Amino acid sequence: MDNCIFCKIVAKQIPATVLYEDDELMAFNDINPVAPVHFLIIPKKHIASLSHVAAEDAMLLGKMMGLAPKLAEQAGCGLTEDADGSRHGGYKTQINTGPAGGQIVYHLHAHVIGGKK
Ligand code: AMP
Ligand code: ZN
Of 21, 36, 44, 62, which one's alpha carbon is 20 to 30 angstroms from that of 108? Predict the structure, then answer.
């Protein structure tokens, strides 16, 4: 998609700190992090927002969500559970949609935010 900043990152036309990449997905650090860990998971395919997701994209969305805990763990903010059942760590996974949802970049992306004490 012309003039889409995230499509340009996918095409390597603009730089990003890439944490993960496969045929369908990419994850890179947010340029303006709001926490020690803040990265974005995007489909390589241009989908403007969550409201533009089609039935055929269900698998892709599942893969995006499945990647979040793996990369959060690599970034040191995974959810851990002690033998006594107490939980530690964790992260927020957020998809902003539309003007009222605070979406600025119209290429679907899930924020993964963590590392706050
Ligand atoms: P939003 O559309 O509000 O969910 O958020 C868009 C996010 O993209 C913001 O957190 C920006 O800091 C981030 N962002 C914008 N441009 C870039 C870029 N070139 N590389 C990495 N992150 C970016
Ligand atoms: Zn795009």
Answer: 36
Ion ligand 2: residues, Cβ under 5 Å:
1, 4, 6-7, 46, 107
pLDDT tens column, 35-87: 999 999 999 999 999 999 999 999 999 999 999 999 999 999 999 999 999 99
Domain containing 47 equals 5-114
- The rounded distance, in Å, linking the Cα atoms of 77 and 67 is 14
Contact 107, 42 (CB under 8 A): yes
Rounded to the nearest angstrom, the distance between the alpha carbon of 77 and the centre of ligand 2 is 28
Tokens read off for 39: 């990265």
Return the ligand 1 atom nearest residue 30 CA. Answer: 22
Q: Residues with catalytic annotation?
A: 109
Q: Which two tokens stand for residue 107?
A: 């290429």
CATH number, domain of 67, equals 3.30.428.10
